[in-house]
Specification:
The chain is about 60% helix and about 5% strand. The chain is mainly alpha-helical. The protein has 3 domains: about 100 residues, Fumarase/aspartase (N-terminal domain) (Fumarase C, Chain B, domain 1); about 240 residues, Fumarase C, Chain A, domain 2 (Up-down Bundle), CATH 1.20.200.10; about 60 residues, Fumarase/aspartase (C-terminal domain) (Ribonucleotide Reductase Protein R1, domain 1), CATH 1.10.40.30. The relative contact order is 0.10. α7 runs parallel beside α13. Bound molecules: arginine.
Length: about 450
């Protein structure tokens, strides 16, 4: 229970803060998420202080035990955050210290020897982000796994490939799913790389200049599981580039999944009728009984806007901010927490949607998507490709006028456009031929897809 609240500053102040400002200034309502990390970091810092004899071994044991209790009490809601916020506690660092003072008295103040909230907040945020990155990477891997399974199931199933949303060339559903697999693979690499940028300890660097107590920074970093030390105090307490990177990576990941969402929305319309999304992720209309609305995919598309907005918001906050810590930096956290939770939901919902989607086989034999095959056919008979392209354009216009697919034209009709066309032309005018001819590495031919799937695509 909170019995008393103390500010971490106040000696030089005669008056209390205005109540409105207290609520304007507080970050506890969102940075409470950092509690376990601030506690962990406080334990590591006090351990290092004990090596300097600032804290005795007995006091260290007392501090550690009390911090563990505080951790439990916060996790089990024995300390209600609402009460703490209402009583004007500024942030999570203040709350942890207040709770420590309430438990063990003045000895608690010793843990702040040479320590600033500027290093604390940077440290706790880095630790939080390290854990969050591992969770997000695991969710990306799970989605990659679903995409691979779907690709395996649909290696041979034809999907019209669109450019400009106009029918272009046939591809397969397997190829489609693997395209997103590749995008997500790069997203995963970006997050993994970010993990290595964040993994440096700022503790022991104080408010801006460093620590005058010769504190063992390596001991603190090792205790907290950081792979290295931040090497400049001014940089360590005031840069948030790793959060910008996180917001940028989440934006790219959201962008990828919003494109898949858009495809699914379009493909599920009665006009396209290529897929049906499961009841698990669709809703009905309160008025129109026939409706099945793709809400899940619409929200993936929509929430990505918010994720982009968070990136812009932080970049704008950081632009031209003077060196050193400024309170503007407190604005980083709501953006970070919100983008993280949105992207986790986006990943999970996309996974359920993709896993449960039903694909309607569709016959594309009458489409003009084999026109490129006809141009290739002419080029193989030594017609220069540009000329071949022109001839096929004319043939297509003729076929459209006569309301026939290309393969329904007679050999005489073909010959009116090019004398080199023989009866072997019909063999190239099938979807199967078009697909199987794209067997270059990375192409849509089922053979090529099988090769990619068999190789180590992780
Ligand atoms: N709540 C603050 C933040 O999120 C913690 C650091 C406060 N430091 C200070 N000098 N006022 O940035």
């Amino acid at each position: 229970m909170m019995t008393q609240t103390h500010k971490l500053w106040g000696g030089r102040f005669k008056d209390d803060n205005d109540q409105l400002f207290v609520f304007f200034n507080e970050s506890l309502s969102f940075d409470y998420r950092l509690a376990p990390y601030d506690i962990q970091a406080t334990k590591a810092f006090s351990l290092a202080l004990s090596k300097l004899d600032v804290i005795s071994y007995k006091e260290l044991t007392l501090i550690h035990r009390a911090l563990d209790e505080i951790d439990d009490e916060l996790k089990s809601n024995k300390v209600t955050l609402q009460t703490a916020i209402e009583s004007g506690v500024e942030d999570i660092h203040t709350l942890v210290e207040n709770l420590l003072v309430n438990k063990i008295g003045d000895v608690a103040y010793k843990v702040n020897t040479g320590r600033s909230r500027n290093e604390q907040v940077s440290c706790a945020t880095r630790l939080w982000l390290k854990d969050k990155l591992s969770e997000i990477i695991a969710l990306i891997k799970a989605l990659m796994c679903t995409l691979k399974q779907k690709a395996n199931q649909h290696i041979d199933d034809v999907l019209m490939g669109y450019t400009h949303l106009q029918q272009a060339q046939p591809i397969t559903w397997g190829h489609y799913f693997l395209s997103f697999y590749q995008m997500l693979k790069r997203d995963k690499l970006r997050f993994e790389e970010l993990l290595s940028h964040v993994d440096y300890s700022p503790l022991g660097l104080g408010a801006i200049a460093g620590n005058a107590w010769q504190i063992d920074r390596k001991l603190i970093a090792d205790t907290l599981g950081f792979k290295g030390l931040c090497l400049n105090s001014l940089d360590a307490v005031s840069d948030r580039d790793y959060i910008v990177e996180f917001l940028s990576h989440t934006s790219l990941l959201g962008m990828h999944l919003s494109r898949l969402a858009e495809d699914f929305i379009i493909y599920s319309t009665s006009e396209f009728n290529l897929i049906e999304m499961s009841d698990l992720v669709t809703t009905g209309s309160s008025l129109m009984p026939q409706k099945k609305n793709p809400d899940a995919m619409e929200l993936v598309r929509g929430k990505t806007g918010r994720v982009y907005g968070n990136l812009m918001a932080l970049l704008t906050t950081l632009k031209a901010m003077p060196s050193g810590y400024n309170k503007d930096l407190q604005e980083d956290k709501e953006l970070l927490f919100q983008s993280a939770s949105e992207i986790e939901m986006i990943l999970k919902v996309s996974n359920i949607t993709i896993e449960s989607v039903l694909i309607h086989p569709k016959n594309h034999e009458k489409s003009f998507s084999v026109a490129t095959e006809l141009a290739d056919y002419l080029a193989k008979k030594n017609v220069p490709f540009r000329e071949a392209h022109h001839i096929v354009g004319e043939i297509t216009a003729y076929a459209i006028e006569n309301n026939k697919p290309l393969k329904a034209l007679t050999i005489e009709e073909f010959k009116a456009f090019s004398a080199v066309i023989e009866s072997d032309v019909y063999a190239v005018l099938t979807i199967d031929f078009a697909l199987n001819s794209k067997k270059v590495q990375g192409g849509t031919a089922p053979l090529a897809i099988r090769e990619v799937l068999a190789s180590n695509v992780e």
